[in-house]
Amino acid sequence: MTRCAFCGRDVDLVVAAPHVHVCPHCRRITTPIRATDTGAPVRPPPARTLVEIAQRIAAHLTRFEADKGPRGVNWWHDGKVNGTRPFFMTGAAKSGRYVGVSYVSYQGPTYLTKAEAARYLAALDAGFVGRHYEALKRKEEE
Prior knowledge:
Layout: E1 2-3, E2 10-11, E3 14-17, E4 20-22, E5 29-30, E6 34-35, E7 41-42, H1 50-66, E8 91-95, E9 98-102, E10 110-112, H2 114-125, H3 132-141
Antiparallel strand pairs: 1-2, 3-4, 4-5, 6-7, 8-9, 9-10
Helix pairs in contact: 1-2
């Protein structure tokens, strides 16, 4: 049992990727908080390589794609059943010195530098739901 950083409950977190856990209660991606001998919480190390960043972004996008309920992240854009969805066959992968992020498979990927991908991942880890340009624009406005 570990404590969810968002809802604060002691639950068994579901492992979605290395250092990426999903709380079954609040369905948010969180980091497990375990008390050490000194009582300080232990958090996973930040992602350092492009592959780690891409894997963690892909885990978030997969969660977005799976949330298809009426009030979910991936509900129909236009409100019509069988319309377009904001996330379809999502993914993220290392591509040379960039991270390729794809929200809709047939539209092709967008390539982010390591700094942009790290900022996007930090926003996703903090609970942001959306695409990279929305997160980076929000960061610039703050």
